[in-house]
Amino acid sequence: MRGWQLASFALFFGLWELAGRWPVSAAFPPFSAAFLALVEMLRDGSLLKAYLITLQPLALGIVLCAVAGIGFGIGMGLSRSVEWLSLPIFIILQAAPMAAIIPLITYIYGIGLTSKVLAVIMLAAPVIVMNSYKGIRNTPPSLLQMCRSFQGTRRQEVMKIVLPHAAGLIFTGLRLGLAMGFIGIVIAELLITPTGIGDLITYNSSVADYPKMFAAIASIVALAAIALYLLERLERRWFP
Amino acid sequence: MIVEVKGVRKTYDSGVEALRDVDLSFPKGQLSTLLGPSGCGKTTLLKIIAGLIPKNGGEVLVNGKAVHGPGPERAFVFQDFALLPWADVLRNVGFGLELRGVERKERDEVARKYIAEVGLKGFEHRYPAQLSGGMRQRVGLARALTVDADIILMDEPFSSVDEQTRRKFQEDLLDLLRHHQKTVIFVTHSIEEAAYLSDQIALLSPRPGRVSKIVRPAVDRSKSPDEIRRDRGYLDTVDEIWGILRQYV
Amino acid sequence: MRMLLSLVVWFALWEIVGQMKFSSIVPPFSAVIEAGIEILPTEKFAKAAIISLRSFGLGMALALAIGIPLGVAMARVKGVGRLLGMWVNIFVSAPISALVPILMAVIGIGETTVVVTVFLFAVFVITLDTQVGITHADRSLVEMARSFGATRRQLYSKVLLLSALPEILAGVRLGAIRGVKGVVIGQLLVAIIGVGELFETYSNNFLMEEFWALVLIVFLFAFAVSEAIAYLERRVEYYAAAR
Q1: pLDDT over 70 (residue B12)
Q2: What is the pLDDT at residue A1?
Q3: How many CB pairs under 8 A join A and C?
Q4: pLDDT in the model for residue C238
Q5: With contacts defined as CB-CB under 8 Å, which chain C residues touch A102?
Q6: In chain C, how long is the greatest CA-to-CA distance?
Q7: How far apart are CA C49 and CA A103, in angstroms?
Q8: Nearest C-alpha neighbor of C126 from the set C72, C57, C58
Q9: Of A115-124, B161-170, B177-186, where does mean pLDDT reach its minimum?
Q10: For residue C237, what is the nearest residue in chain B, using CA coordinates?
Q11: Which partners does chain B have (≥3 C-beta pairs < 8 Å)?
Q12: Model confidence at C155: pLDDT above 80
């Protein structure tokens, strides 16, 4: 398996290198140039500085979503009336292109942290809420009947059966939410106003330093991939 | 002898030795059973005869010629029915002919005939999901009959069918196969089923699978099904087989 | 039905909040609908809609034409699956919008960039779901077809693809949802064409009625596309209920 992974990396970066050297376009640097640019940005600290800015709204947004979104999703799963009122909204929000509202958010909240946190929340919340809701709703009826047959109270039913059973799906929701959060923060930093990693991308693009621009883009894609991979490993270990 | 198995060996990639030097012959026009405990490689042997999985050694002769893959003279009936869920009964039964490029009209006609023979007339346009397990396997049997193969290979065809349906199905099967003069190779783990249906029973030992004994039940087939089940020869055969198989359990 | 009723409650709430003039950002729902009816027949909207639909259609067509065969190849050819599996898995959840600046630099600022954005948003989930569908295709159906002498082509056209159809359709539905997001994000970033341009214009000029009307129209479109494919999925599931 290790060998295949290596071959897979080699194939991708090799093709990138070839495409850059061929060249596809003056704005398409080979992999080696982008890699050197990445090393340079790591060395002079600009990448680290950018991520300190970028990760703030991401972390803030995800934490807010985790607390409020999971709570709300659980409420939706437990209460018929909450479900009735909010399920249609979340079904639509999951399919909706939320990015359309970002220009408005910028208009109201300006170009600061609040707007970016809101962008992250808007994209991440639907999937977190829906997964928590589904986790609660997917409790096998036979388990609930078992609990009732032993005269379990509603409280025990929720605490000892429903929530433990839903934990896996809720965690999956958090992971998918983080993926959406990455998408949200990237859109926010490109669209609202360039800061952090978005600034690195936009600035280097405007001064035609394409290796640096590619390095910045590759770094955020890689960071998202690694974070999601680690969460998936955790998920497999905790909820097999 | 229509099918001959000579020195067939099979070891899976996982290292499990499924079959070791199996020699067996199957007489034309008879129903032969491969019987043994689970894991004895009986399904593996049947699929090797069908040409569905490769063997590691030995050969399979059909009408004296070595075969290496599936062929038109053999038709397979699957344990889990293997029906196309998106196709109705008519199309499922005619699927073997469809793959051979037979015209729609012609294959529908042949399919209708065999659907009637297995007792499913009126169900032509139902989908597999709408049928019971027994009816699904009748579709599988009809599909194998439409391609007019001399040899029918059946892999535990009744194991997913409930008990009452199974008895009726076994009786129908005997009638149908006698009528069409098919050679049948049948895999089962039920001693009663083997004794009731077979002209020849090959007992396989588990891991690695080898032929431990060949039994030819002395059952008078002219009797009615219920009489056969009380027949001396039938009951003796069941006892004899159990005497051999119990050592493997 | 119950769902519709719940939406009615929300719209009513929206109307009340709007009428209270609580905030200029939230105009009454009725005013938004009025604005929607007003902008629908305008030439400006028609032009934006056509450009956006064309980008969406082309990008999706490209994603289907490449994603499905690629998914099949990944499932059937071990080497292809192992070489590409990791990258498809990374890009299926990666922030694809980060790649839009690359497209703008390499392809330029225009419709093609939006088409490629739609393609990139949609293709990976289609590939992945096709691969899953083909990999999980009933093995005994494959054996059955082989035992009746199916050719390679017949195996694909009559068994494998149909068997994987539920998963493929699920992938297409998710791909289409992402494709709509791709149009909006692509056009917002490129900022000078289609619906994205309208969004910018409306919010910059504080035309809130028009802005919300456009949001409703785009959301409705995304929802309609997803429901249309979901309808196909349910029909397929009926046939595949035996699985």
Answers
A1: yes
A2: 58
A3: 140
A4: 61
A5: 188
A6: 73
A7: 19
A8: C72
A9: B161-170
A10: B86
A11: C
A12: yes
Q: Looking at A4-8, B121-125, B157-161, C15-19, which range is the least confident one? A: B157-161
* pTM score of the predicted model: 0.84
Let me know if residue B78 belongs to a domain.
no
pLDDT digits 0-9 by tens, B73-125: 888 888 888 888 888 899 989 888 888 888 899 899 999 999 998 888 889 89
Whether residues B64 and B90 share a domain: the answer is no
Number of Cα atoms under 13 Å in the Cβ half of residue B66: 8
- The answer to whether the CB atoms of A107 and C204 lie below 8 A apart is yes
C186-219 pLDDT per residue, tens: 888 876 788 888 888 888 888 888 888 998 898 8
Residues B202-231, mean pLDDT to the nearest whole number: 80
CA atoms within 13 A on the CB side of A24: 16
Contact check, Cβ <8 Å, A205/C101: yes
Measure Cα distances from C133 to A216, C76, C171 in Å: 35, 11, 10
CA–CA distance from C159 to each of A184, B215, C163 (Å)? Answer: 40, 40, 6
Nearest C-alpha of chain C: how many angstroms from B21? 24
Q: Residue holding tokens 């000078």?
A: C192
Query: Total structural domains in chain B?
Result: 2
Compute the distance between CA of residue A186 and CA of residue A200 in angstroms, rounded to an integer: 12
Of A60-64, C70-74, C129-133, C194-198, give the lowest mean pLDDT range. C194-198
Residues B140 and B164 in one domain: no
φ and ψ at residue B26, rounded to 5 degrees: -120, 115
Pick the CATH number of C45-242 from 2.60.40.10, 1.10.3720.10, 3.40.640.10, 3.90.226.10: 1.10.3720.10
State the Rg of chain A over Cα.
22
Task: Measure the CA–CA gap between C162 and C155, rounded to whole angstroms.
Answer: 10
Omega before residue B208 within 30° of 0, cis: yes
- Considering only alpha carbons, which residue of chain C is nearest residue A20? C106
pLDDT at A59 over 90: yes
Name the pLDDT band for C243 (thresholds 50, 70, 90): very low
Token pair 């948003």: residue: C121
Which among B149, B75, B147 is positioned nearest to B106, based on CA atoms? B147
Query: Is A5 an interface residue toward C (CB < 8 Å)?
Result: yes
Which has the closest alpha carbon to C105: A186, A24, A35, A41?
A24
Which domains are assigned to chain A?
55-193 (1.10.3720.10)
The pLDDT of C78-100, averaged and rounded, is 91
The one-letter code for the residue type at A239 is F
Q: Does C86 touch chain A (CB under 8 A)?
A: yes
Residue with tokens 């690695």: B208
CB atoms within 10 A of CB B218: 11
Distance of CA C200 to the CA centre of its chain: 22
A-chain residues near C102 (CB < 8 A):
27-28, 213-214, 217
Q: Among partner residues B52, B85, B127, which is closest to C147 by beta-carbon distance?
A: B52
**Of residues C46, C47, C50, C40, the one with CA closest to residue C210:** C40
**Contact at CB, C199 and A103, closer than 8 angstroms:** yes
- What A141-146 contacts at long range (C-beta under 8 Å, 24+ apart), as own/partner pairs, is none
- Answer yes or no: do B118 and B166 share one domain: no
Q: Tell me: the pLDDT tens digits for A109-127?
A: 888 888 999 999 999 999 9
Report chain B residues whose CB lies below 8 A from the CB of C241.
85, 127, 129
The structure tokens listed for A103 are: 């220009």
Whether omega before A30 lies within 30 degrees of 0, making that bond cis, reads no
Give the pLDDT mean for B161-174. Answer: 81
Say if the Cβ atoms of C98 and A201 lie within 8 Å. yes
Q: Tell me, what DSSP letter sits at residue C113?
A: H
